[in-house]
Design brief:
alpha/beta; seven-stranded parallel β-sheet; Rossmann fold; two-stranded parallel ribbon; 205 residues; globular
């Protein structure tokens, strides 16, 4: 079975849409260990609305935090402390897509970062990048951190319009496999997700 952790070079780069596409492509279960804010419209609910296959199971978050802040700060406001020992991947016989919160270096508590959680879960990473001024730097720093932690990387997905020069530089410097691109779409719905899922199922299965 394939277990992938979807992380991004920062907040708002498209982890959730990529997670929905991969969940559909792999007919996988989906799990977001930490939801920070937007509990009434969580990423789990968003992915669930975009997935068409009947077999995916959407597992409960280990932590549901009220405020849309860095997990460590949101947890502090909720008077709780996030501990890695309490975050255990759900038991499943199917493929599993795990979605992170924020980027790799987001603090979870006073000692652990999101990348420490990835290391603990012992899964391959799919890195989501999006083009903006500074995105090369952010992508290369993310790649450097993953290599320092010796975390296996399946590849990189670019979300948004193409920038050939930027993508060439990133792929050359990181050595990561280019898995595909999610174009800017006028809307995101089950039809769009299914369209992209057909591409990624051929690559990831």
């Amino acid at each position: 079975m394939k277990h992938y952790f979807v992380t991004g070079i920062g907040t708002g780069v498209g982890k959730t849409i990529v997670s929905a596409i991969l969940t559909e492509a792999l007919e996988a279960d989906y799990w977001k260990p930490i939801q920070s804010g937007d509990l009434d419209d969580s990423d789990t609910l968003k992915v669930q609305k975009l997935v068409s296959n009947p077999s995916s199971i959407f597992h409960e978050e280990a932590y549901r935090l009220k405020n849309p802040l860095s997990p460590h700060e949101s947890a502090k406001l909720d008077n709780i402390t996030i501990t890695l020992d309490k975050i255990t991947a759900p038991v499943t016989t199917k493929n599993l897509v795990i979605e992170g919160a924020g980027g790799l270096m987001v603090p979870l508590n006073e000692t652990d970062l999101m990348i420490d959680l990835i290391k603990k879960l012992n899964v391959e990473v799919i890195l989501v990048s999006r083009h903006y001024l500074g995105s090369i730097n952010h992508t290369l720093l993310s790649a450097f951190a993953l290599k320092q932690y010796q975390i296996p990387v399946k590849g990189i997905i670019f979300n948004g319009g193409e920038n050939a020069a930027t993508e060439t530089a990133i792929l050359k410097e990181t050595g990561f496999t280019f898995l595909g691109r999610i174009n800017e779409e006028p809307e995101l719905n089950k039809t769009i997700v299914s369209h992209y899922a057909a591409h990624f199922s051929k690559i990831l299965l």
